[in-house]
């Protein structure tokens, strides 16, 4: 099993003549990244992906523009016009571009591997192709965890509640399953209850997974079973510069609604959004949130 | 990877002094087994598991009684009182017995491995323990596929529609995923669309999985994607005398509603219920149903 690349990179420092772009998908991560950059005195340039990032949300407070997914060919020129030297791809892109609507240019056509154009790759393969495409045009792609290292999940229990002995069985079982489906590039999350995996994440995402677990509580096979754990894992060999597993206050809220006792992520390979708010909420609800030692990590 | 045991057993023939019991869970399989036994001139004795088999359904036409899951200790005496020498465990048991309601006897307490009593085993481990428990008391456990070999899925395409080239990519990808989660004793089914696995079966079962795929059709990542395939696989090393993957007319109906192009199962390791009705329905809806050559089977 290969390791993820998170820990092999040092935090990025930006010079006076560099500017960071944030290509913003859905969720809270893009906002966290842009705000952290502002707080560091940098002036990020945000590209809101249409249909994913809210153009009327907090991201609009930054210097920004919007882009259709199908106009990806215009991304690099747009970033360059705005002096961007480094770019962070942050947030969820639920949609996949429709080829029929795609505005092509020769550069895009010539460079993106045909296989990526066919969009038949897993998320990770597609991401790598996009990253390579951008970097070959002279813009460096950095990971959210490099720009905002304070978002990276630390090792150890983050909450007052700690996993109990049966919870550890749930954590271990769910982690094994999350790793197995990660290796197949299917999803990042698994839920175990009573020592058994009962649900696996597909494209519905973690929120969808937890909503399902809530519904499954009435399933006969879970009768009388309490607790349970959600585990999210980076895929083995995952491109850490995009799509690291993340959790936040909403994950805690939904895990609680699903009757789970807590959440475990891999320390160093996962992002925690709105950390203080998340921990406060977990403590109020009595859930544990824990950063597990990463397996086979190469510091 | 070990092979399932389906093909290593010969069809069972019953002598004049033998009687076959059918422990009936949910679904259509128990009825198919009991009816086939009647058709063979045998007179099955049916034990309806309360809450799973319908006591007012067609099974009640056979010589029968009902049993609470928690009264499992009384199963062997009940079967013996009715002259049963061989028993088939057929159909789905969604519920797991509640220990607090369980009627114990010394025999059960002494014999069932403690680990099985704790109900912490996977389905397969628990089944094996139950099978062993029954056989040690002198009743032979036989598989539905041994009693009703005509239910076993044959190799090759069963329908007018055949998998197209992109369908084969879906079939191969979903099969790999179904085998992976099977190896972890999580579930039997996976759905791939556009060459990618988008949903995996947990305890919600195949119907739940297909209902979810139907909902996911509106997910951005599936925009413009047609077709897709459901693959069901026996777990590697699965106890074939219970819980073989099965499909039937309802599976076809739900796969169609989920927008899938067809269904693939492993030939020899899967059961087809109401075969003629299923094929007729698949042909009417234009779906393919195919029996894949079993991997590494030992004839």
TrEMBL record, chains A, B:
<dbReference type="InterPro" id="IPR010415">
    <property type="entry name" value="LpxI_C"/>
</dbReference>
<protein>
    <submittedName>
        <fullName>LpxI family protein</fullName>
    </submittedName>
</protein>
<dbReference type="InterPro" id="IPR043167">
    <property type="entry name" value="LpxI_C_sf"/>
</dbReference>
<dbReference type="Pfam" id="PF06230">
    <property type="entry name" value="LpxI_C"/>
</dbReference>
<dbReference type="InterPro" id="IPR053174">
    <property type="entry name" value="LpxI"/>
</dbReference>
<dbReference type="Pfam" id="PF17930">
    <property type="entry name" value="LpxI_N"/>
</dbReference>
<dbReference type="InterPro" id="IPR041255">
    <property type="entry name" value="LpxI_N"/>
</dbReference>
<feature type="domain" description="LpxI C-terminal">
    <location>
        <begin position="155"/>
        <end position="290"/>
    </location>
</feature>
<feature type="domain" description="LpxI N-terminal">
    <location>
        <begin position="19"/>
        <end position="151"/>
    </location>
</feature>
